C-alpha cells in the first residue's frame, strides 16, 4: 500500500506534485476545494461544495474537480446516475469502501477490519486470475437503502 501523507501540509505538497505532473497548477480555489474534501471526511456532492464554498462558482468547482480527477487527486463516487459525490483518492487517504443509498444518494465511508480486507483481496485476485487479469486494487460499493430511507414510510416503494 502506498505511503499516505500524515499531515495537512504533506497532503497539500503531495497534491501539488501530482498537479505539476499533470501540467496543472495548485490554485487557491483548488486548495480550498481539497481542504473542504479533507474536512468533510466523506464523499461530498457538488451542492455540498457549493454551500460550503459560496465564492467558488459551480462551473469552476466542476472544472477543478475534473482537473483534480485527471491528476489522480479526486475520484467520483456514484450511487446512481443522479447521485455523484467526490472524495480524495485512496492513495492520498486510506483504503475504504462505501455504502450507497439508491434512494437519497447518501454515501457512507466504511473501513473494514483486516480479516475482511484480506478475504476481499483474495477473492478479487482469484476472480482476476480466472480471466488472466492483473489486479492492482479493489473497491467495494454496497448499494441499497440507508437506515433513514429504510424507516421512511413515504419511500417504501422507491428503489
What would your notes on this structure say?
The protein is an alpha+beta fold. The chain has 2 domains: 1-94, Arc Repressor Mutant, subunit A (Orthogonal Bundle), CATH 1.10.10; 95-159, Ferric-uptake regulator, C-terminal dimerisarion domain (Dna Ligase, domain 1, 2-Layer Sandwich). The chain is 43% helix and 16% strand. It has 6 helices and 5 strands, in the order H-H-H-H-E-E-E-E-H-E-H. The chain has helices at residues 8-21, 28-40, 46-52, 58-70, 114-130, 147-151; strands at residues 74-80, 83-88, 97-101, 107-110, 141-144. The strands form 2 sheets. It has a 3-stranded mixed β-sheet, with no helix packed on it. It has a two-stranded antiparallel sheet with strand order 1-2. The longest helix has 17 residues, at 114-130. It is globular. It starts with 7 loop residues before the first helix and ends in an 8-residue tail after the last helix. The model has no long low-confidence stretch (mean pLDDT 87).
How would a textbook summarize the main sheet? Answer: 3 strands, mixed
Helix proportion range:
40-55%
What are the secondary-structure elements, in order, as H or E?
HHHHEEEEHEH
Question: What is the total number of structural domains?
Answer: 2
Strands of the widest sheet, in order across it, are 4-3-5
CATH class of the largest domain: Mainly Alpha
For the record, give the distance between the C-alpha atoms at the N and C termini, rounded to a whole number.
36 Å
Under CATH, the topology of the largest domain is which?
A: Arc Repressor Mutant, subunit A
Beta-strand residue percentage: 15-25%
Given helix and strand content, the structural type is alpha+beta
Net shape: globular
